[in-house]
Amino acid sequence: MTVKITRIASVENHPTLNHLSVYTLTDIPDIKLVSMKVDDDHRYQLGEYVAHIPPETIWPEWLLKYMDFWDEAKGKGTLGGSKGNRLKARTFARGTSEEVVSFGMLHRVSCEKGDFFIQTETGKKFIGGLSGPPINLDADYSEILGITQT
Fold first, then answer.
1. Average per-residue pLDDT in the chain?
2. Is the pLDDT reported for residue 97 higher than 90?
3. Distance in angstroms (rounded) separating the CA atoms of residues 54 and 66
4. Is there a contact between 59 and 69 (Cβ–Cβ < 8 Å)?
5. Strand-by-strand arrangement of the 57-58 sheet
6. Cα 138 vs. chain centroid, distance in angstroms?
7. C-alpha to C-alpha distances, 30 to 33, 86, 99, 116, 132, nearest whole angstrom
8. Using an 8 Å Cβ cutoff, are 108 and 52 in contact?
9. pLDDT above 90 (res 1)
10. Whole-angstrom Cα distance, residue 146 to residue 33?
11. Model confidence over 17-42: pLDDT tens digits?
12. Among 3, 78, 89, 122, which has the minimal tally of Cβ within 10 Å of its Cβ?
């Protein structure tokens, strides 16, 4: 299990669930990822750098809260597992011709003046750009995010 930085290769509207976007990635074109739209717009854009978090991973509490997968009243995450912190592949529009299986989740990589950063528990971490080496697309970013395998 590795969390890698990659780019958005394609962005589509889900054929029947209008509040969802369907993405493919440059490094893994044979899988799809699904995300809710924000104000009717796609959350990620074509060519944008993102971290791909694969299924069957355990998320730390800070990341669940940061990505809005936290239920404050219950004191746990809203993903799978007893603690709500386990990411699983998820099927949307199951049993229809528009069925899409989402293999993982995307985490934003921000760009500021040609430098790229990823949000961690302690703040933004530089991962490459004009101020230093380029982004390492072969690196595993699971440790800096606190993500482990199930």
1. 93
2. no
3. 18
4. yes
5. 86-87, 57-58, 148-149
6. 17
7. 10, 23, 15, 26, 32
8. no
9. no
10. 21
11. 889 999 999 998 889 999 999 998 99
12. 122
Q: Which domains does the chain show, CATH number per domain?
A: 4-149 (2.40.50)
Dihedral angle of Cα 146, 86, 20, 93, to the nearest 10 degrees: 160
pTM for the model stands at 0.91
Beta sheet of 33-36, edge-to-edge order: 33-36, 20-25, 4-13, 49-53, 105-112, 115-120, 123-129
119: tokens are: 């949000």
3-state secondary structure at position 57? strand
Residue 139 CB neighbour total at 10 angstroms: 15
Cβ count near 85 (within 10 Å) = 23
CB 102 within 8 A of CB 94: no
Query: What is the bridge-based pairing of β-strands 115-120 and 57-58?
Result: unpaired
| CA-to-CA dists, residue 54 to 51, 70, 87, 107, 145, angstroms | 10, 19, 8, 11, 13
**Beta strands, E only, the chain:** 4-13, 20-25, 33-36, 49-53, 57-58, 70-71, 76-77, 86-87, 90-92, 100-102, 105-112, 115-120, 123-129, 148-149
* Residue 91 phi, psi (nearest 5): -100, 130
